[in-house]
Structure formats: C-alpha cells, structure tokens
Records
---
Amino acid sequence: MSTWGALVRKELLLEIRARESVPAMALFSVTTYVVFHFGLDRSSLDGDLASGVLWVTLLFAAMLGVNRLFVADREQGGFDGFLLAPVDRSALLLAKAASLFAYLVAVELVAIPAFAFLLLGPSPAQLLPELVGILLLANAGIAVIGTLASALAIQTTARDLIAPLVALPLLIPVVIAGARATTPLMLESGAEAVPAKWAAVLGLYDLVFALLAYAVFDFLLED
Amino acid sequence: MPALPLDEAGKYVAGAYIVFVALILVYVAIMAVKLARIERELEELNELADQRTPGGTA
Amino acid sequence: MYGKGLRPLSIATCLTLTAAFALVFFYAPLDADQGFIQKIFYVHVPMAIVALGGFVAGAIMAVQHLRTGDRRWDLRSYVAIHLSLVLGVGVLVTGAIWAKAAWGHWWVWDEPTLVSFLIVFLLYATYQPLRFSIEDPERQARYASVFAVTAGAFVPLNFLAVRLAEQLTHPRVLGATGGSMPGEFRFTFLVALAGMVLLFVTLWKYEMASKHATAQLRSLRRKLGGEEALIPAGRSAAPSAGLPARPTAD
C-alpha cells in the first residue's frame, strides 16, 4: 500500500508544481463549450443535448490528460528507476490511474460550473447530488482505460495519435451510460430520477476493466 | 416496412453477395502475389545452394 | 505445419458455401415484410459472427502469447485479427447495403448490432498502426497482445452497452424475421454460418502457411548465404514469427 501511496504522492506533487495537465484540461473544456455554442448555434441546452455536450467535452479533455500521463516517465527515465525497485509493478498502474482520476475530479470542479454558467438551461441545483455519483463512476472508468491506453502508446513513435484512437472506442460505453444517466437530471421540466441501470453498467464496466488492466499491465512494463 | 419489388431488391442483394465474393477474390489475389514471391526466392536459394555444393563444405 | 489439411478444408469450405448460397436462393422462403432484401441476412450476419469470433480467438491466442512468451502465438493472433478486420469491412459494407435497401439510408443508428460492430471495428483498426509504430519486434508483439486481450474483452461488453442504449427508443429494423426463425430460415442460416466459419479457418491456415514459408525462406537464406545474403526487412506491422531477422543494431 505504501508504494502506491508514495507514487500517487509523487504524481500529484509533480502536477501541482508543474501545473501542466489540469489547467490545460480545464481551459480546454471551457473553450469547447464556446465551440459548441457556435457549432450548434444554441445558447441554452437541456435534456439529452446538454448531457451529450457535457460528456463529449469531458471525454476529449480527458484525452489531453491521457496523452501526458506517462510522458515525464518516458523522457526522464522514470520507468527504469521504478523497474529496479523491489516493488509490485501494478502499483504504478494504480498510482497513474489514481492520479488521472484526481485530475478529472479537479477538471470537473471547473468544467461543471462553467457548463452551468455558459450552456445549461435548467438550474444547476437540480443536477446534484446524483451528478457527482455518476461522474465519480465514470471518472474511474476513464482513469483505468486512459492509463492502459497511455501505457500502450507511450512506447510507440506516434503516441499522441495512438492513445486517443485506442481509448475512445473503449470509452464509448462509458459515454453511453454517463449520458443516458445524466439526461434525466438536465430536463427543463425539472430533474427526474436517474435509472439505476446506468449506474450499474458504469460500475460493472469499471470493475471489468480494472481487473483486466491489473492482469495485463505487467506485460507493458517488462523489458 | 416496404418490400421493394423484385427487380430493385435484386440489385441490392446481388451487390451484397458480390461484395463478399470480391473480398475473397482480392484476398486470393494478394496471396497469389505472395506465392509468386516465395517461388522466386526458392529459385534464388536453389541457385545459391548449387553454387555452394561444388566448392564449399556443406 | 499449417499447410497440412488445407486441401480437405478448402474443399469443405467450397462445398458448404456453395450449398449455402443454393439454399439461400432456391430453398429459403421469402420473408414476409422485407421480401427479397432479407436474403442479405445470410451473408451479412454469418460474416459478423465469424469476424467477432475471430477477434475473440485473437484475444485468446494473445493470452497464450503473454503466458508462454512463444512468439508463434503472436503470429497466430495477428493473422486471426487481420482476417477478422477484412471480414469486418465486408460486414459494414453489406450492412450498409442492407440498410439502404430496407430503410432508404446507407446507415442506420437504430440497429444496435451494426453500431456495436462499427465501434469494435474502429478499435481494431488501430491494431496495425499500433504494431507498426513500435519498432522493437519483441516489444511490438507484447504490446500487440495486450491490446488484443483488452479489445477482445471489450467486444461483448460493447455489444451489451449499445444494446442497452437502443433498447427503449427503437425496435430492431434489420432483425432476421422479427423474432425466432422458422425452420427453413434457420437451416439456411446455419449452413451459411458453417460455411463462413470454414472459410475463416481455411484462410487463417492459408495465411499462416504463407507467413511460415516466408520465415523459413529467410532462415534458409541466412544458412546458405550468411548474413550478407539477407535482404534487410523493413519496419513492418506483421510479426516475424519469432525468428530473428538479423542482429538488431540498437
């Protein structure tokens, strides 16, 4: 446990000091809302359209984070140092996924209020607290799959291209479940109950991929 | 759902089956090219082996 | 030896597929609401099932590669996935033709299996670029296997998720005959499916035999002519069957 803790601490410290990924992801989200406003020619969204715009924006912002996730380790030799240490290798997977999860939460703290401010028609108060739960479940899935895709791509020569191309199809079920789950919350006529089915789908998906990632991650680190 | 008249529907069905056959035939063509290359290489290697046997030690 | 048994296999494939097509056009009755268009079902659906089966088989072979480290499993996995991609193109094209004939549009989002298939196809389309962009062959094989396993696990999950999403909004439009298949339809379908499975296995062995032969040729060339006789192999997405091309200079 302490290996994992140390690694997560290192990741978060690096991010707080360098401030590379999270500010960029947050800014990207807000800019994307502006683009959507012009692209859709709408000033106010509700229901499934609002839900869709939110999830697409979050997904693409996550791709930015996924691209950067292993870059520092690759370029500054962090992998070798880690491999030499007598620790369980999947700790690296957990640490990276946990950091990505933390980045996503941080970004959403900016992106959701910005969404409510810029594009959301109904009042933001009706979104809580269910939105938080759905976002946390979805973030877990994005974190696991994003880490796996990033680790796959980091050794390739075209890593910025490969990571999103691999991650996006794998994340489509997360978008499906997330968007369907939050649509009832964003209805103009007032929030309705979130179908439990979608939360279950998200949870199940997260679990399967977490187990899968845990099983295969070692093979990505061998050398 | 409308059932298209036979002459119109026939074209679509034919199209689908033709796509299937075309895929297989393209595949066969590609494999044929590979086979030709293997044949050529074998011939070269045979010549290489002929060169070695008179003078060389196996 | 992959070529062994290839002759009886190809004959069986030929016969079964021919029988299937004959059944489709001379035996299976016309569908009640879609009419003649429904016949596309017999080529589109078996291709889809076999392609998906091929992806899953590729995943299982990739697991074997990761477990044993034997690069031949990677080659088998690669060929299975590659073949499934080719069939996948066929599935999407025949699916589009069917959609156009039955619904008037070249694509319908209402058909969950077709949409799921598109997503799976888009994922596997990254398999070869991923391989190609990793230069070290051993690492290429390992990473490709990790990808194949992940993608293989994704296939059933994806179908479930998309089906759940479309359930309440749209009824199936390209389904077989609206419900369970009566006897003649089912029999024809099963023969077509069997033919498609045989086709996949035959083509798989065919390609494996070809790759194996090429690898043997390289090895023979090196034995006969020494290192200089080798034609340098460029970067490639295809695995090198575990036979080292030549001492790598990195």
Note: Chains B and A do not touch (no CB pair under 8 Å).
---
Amino acid sequence: MDVPSDQPQSAGTTQRPAKMVAKDVDAFFGRTQALKKVSLEVATNRVLAIIGPSGCGKSTFLRCLNRMHEVASGTMKGRITLDEEDITSIDEVNLRRRVGMVFQKPNPFPTMSIFDNVAAGLRFNGHHNHKHLAEVVERCLRQAALWDEVKDSLNKSGMSISGGQQQRLCIARTLAVSPEVVLMDEPASALDPLSTAKIEELIYELKQNYTIAIVTHNMQQAARVSDMTAFFYLGELIEIGETKRIFTTPEKRQTEDYITGRFG
Amino acid sequence: MKKDEKVYFYWRKAKNNAMILFSLACVLLALVPLILIFSYTLLQGISSLNIDFFIQMPKPVGESGGGMANALVGTGILLGIGGLIGLPVSIMAGIYLAEYGDNPFAATVRFLADVLSGIPSIVVGVVAYVLVVLPMKHFSALAGGVALAILMIPTVTRTTEEMIRLVPHSFREAGLAIGIPRWKTTLRIILPTALKGITTGILLAIARAAGETAPLLFTALGNRFWSTAIDQPIASLTVFIYDYSKSAFEDWIRQAWGAAFVLIALIFVLSVIFRIVTRSRYAEH
C-alpha cells in the first residue's frame, strides 16, 4: 500500500453531503476565548485535516465536535450538528459513541489486555456475549491493521506493545463502538516515521467507512491523508478548501506563510 | 593551584564531609530506638514464643503456660470489622474527592479528613463508646471495629484521592471518548489503575489500626475467654499486652513481651507485603 497522494480522491469532495456542520462556534476556557466564530463542514466519508500553529484552537475545535471540551470545563457558543441534529441535544455519552476520538499520546487502558482494551467500549455498555465480542475485536484490529501483529498475544497487557502499535490499538478501541465520525488529535506526533506511515495508510483505509477529522502539526501529513484542509490561526478559521488547492494556491496570505514555513 | 585556591578547596571539602557525617550520625541516632525496641522485645519475648503461645487459651490466674489464641483471632476480627465498615466508606469518599471534588464542600471534607487523622486515638475510642457501647449497653467487638474504622477512614480516604489523582487524565478521556459513562469510567478504568497505590494505603491503615490499644480499652474491652461473637467483648493483642504487662506475675509479663514481638512482626510482615505490592507497580511499565 502506498500513501495515496496520487489517487483520484479529491474529485467531487465539495459535493459530498456534510456529516457535521459547525456554525459560528465560539469556545471558552474560563475567560479565555479559544475559538472565534468558526464555521465549517466535515464531509461524509472524507478526511478533513486541521492545521495551524500551537495554541490556534484546532484541538479545541476537534474536542467541541464530540463535546470532550466539557471534560476540561470548556464552554461553547454557536451550533454544531451531526446529521443535522444539534449535538447539544444528543446525550454526551451517545454522542461520543457516534463521534469517537483518538488522542495524541497512545493511551491504552493499563490494567487491561489487548483484547479487553478493544472490547471495553462494548463490554461497559452491556455487551457480554463472548463470541460477539471476539468477532468485533478481530474486525476492529484488522481495520486498524494490527491484527496480524497481535493475534497471538491478545491476552498480553495493552501496554506491552510498541507505541505505534498502542496507537493502532487505540484506533481499534475507538472503532469497536461503531462510530460514524472519528476525530484524531495529532495521532502520529508521538510516533516514529514508520509507525506514522502506518497510521496514515490506515486513515486512508478508514475513510471508506468513516468520516474523519484529524488535527496535525505535520503539513506533509495533512497533504498526504486529507481531502479537505482547514487552517486555523489565533482561534479563527482562516481558510478551508480542498487540500490540493490549499497547498498549491492558498487564497490567504497567512495560510501561505504558514504552509511555506515562514511562521508557526 | 595557588595557595588561596588550595585553602578554599580543602575548606570546601571539609564542609562537605562534615555535612555527610552529621546526616549519617542523625540517621544512626534515629535507628537506635527502632533497633532497641525490636531486639529488646525479641530478647524478652522469645522464651514465651512457641506453638502453644499461638494456639492455646490464656491459663487461669496463677497457672503458668497458656497462650493468646483468642487475642490473635480477636485482633483479626476487629481489623475485619474495621475494614468492612471503614474501607468502602473511605474508598467511595476518596473517589468523590478526586473525581467530583472541585467545590468548597469537598475542600472542607478534605480539611476535616486531615484534622480527623490527627485526632488522638483515645478520643476516637470515646466516640465509639458513645455511638455503639452506650446504645448496646455493653462492650463489643462491633464497637472496637467501629473505633478502628473511624481511625482508618481519614488516611484511606486521602490516599485513595491522591492515587486516583495520579492516574493520567488521558485514561479518563479515553474512557469517555468511546462512550463509557462517567461513573463506569471511574469504577472500571480509573479505580483499577489506581488500585495498587490504594492497596498500599489500606495496608498502612490496617497496620496502624492493628497497633492501637487506647480506642479498644472501652469499646472491645478485652476478653479472657474464647469469643468470636461481634456483640460480645473480644480480646486483642494490644489489650492483651496492656493487661499482662501491668500484672504481678512474671509469666504474664513474659507473655506480654511475646505478644508485643508478635505484633511488631505482624506489622513488619504487612509492611513487607506493601513493599512488594508497590514494587510490582513500577515493574509493570
């Protein structure tokens, strides 16, 4: 599998129906405003990359999409919808089952085996049929391209595998509850180049079935994996468009400066 | 080196060595009582340490021999009751303080727990006396257990809180992000991760409770006979030591030394267990 930058993936991106729509989103932590009037769409079965310098609000925006910002007692104004339903009217537990999240640092549950890590989301929500769980675990580990590496050690601790494998385990764990959208917050920034390449391949595979939004510091990564790219700066959305266009002919000066490395 | 530099060099070296010697002397000084207690107790008690001492009942006054089986079992029962009452309360309280404790009420509870852990244990005994002994109208193992539970609660609560706080936030987020409800994330993911640290706190609290005499004097009272009933007075190692050590019989005083040694050994064993438990926590990662 090659990293598919030359595949005909960007055609018709804008015609895809929007899975999630953000309209005039402001976000606050205490008195600090982290996001200012952000409006954008995440297209179904497409990959949206969010780029920008540190502290520009990109992670905050990602967290608003499944209300994880509330865990850090953040507040939000404006409106975000999932399939045209306001996410504040969806119970946050149900919302997070539909909109899963993978974090920057691999965080498998340390007291659980590889199998139990993947099964956790289902098991703690009342699914105990072992045959069914085993099927889901295998399917998700295959989807996360980890099955062949761990199929003989499913009972080993989730912490016993390498960092890159742990991150794919976390992706499998997220997939196990059958989300519609997968949010990734710099999923490869703590990994070596080989593991990073694997995660990127994986993202390309996953968009067949899932809608993906990924925050990344790595511009090449954004260019490789995404269909659409959004550039954030100081809490504002500066520009959004097809990835190819953003990286070749950005409309805004700030975007150009950032992607050419003049600042950030 | 010039002469000035040389003087400075040796002066600095001398100060450094003086510091090391001084701290070493203090360490040895601090160890002296510990070694004295341990060796003297062993020396005085070793003659009464035999199988009979562990499995026999106390002999009637005037007869020599006999053991402290009832006190050994009694201490076990008292610790059991104390743990059964105290541990669930303190673990849940610790969870509350760590997970939902971002408010003035929790800050107050935290402060009061710290105060409670500093209250003399005899006062805790009086409280248990009023709460349990007076309504029941007689001394009982239950009252002793309640007193020990009150002693355990503040330390275990605070340890539980601290250990849960040490669990990285990312595990909490990981649980929430796959749609596990908050309470289940706490009980099934956070608590197991913190369990080893909490176990350490529990063992320390139990070791401390095992050595308490004052709160048992007017709650569990002590018992010369075999009793495992929780509504009756019950023997314990510490009260056994207290009673025997102030008696006039040489044999009893010797047995008090023996029991004291057993108690120290018991706490020692608990500490070793807690060492092993904490070590495996770091070995895991």
Note: The mean pLDDT of chain B is 90.
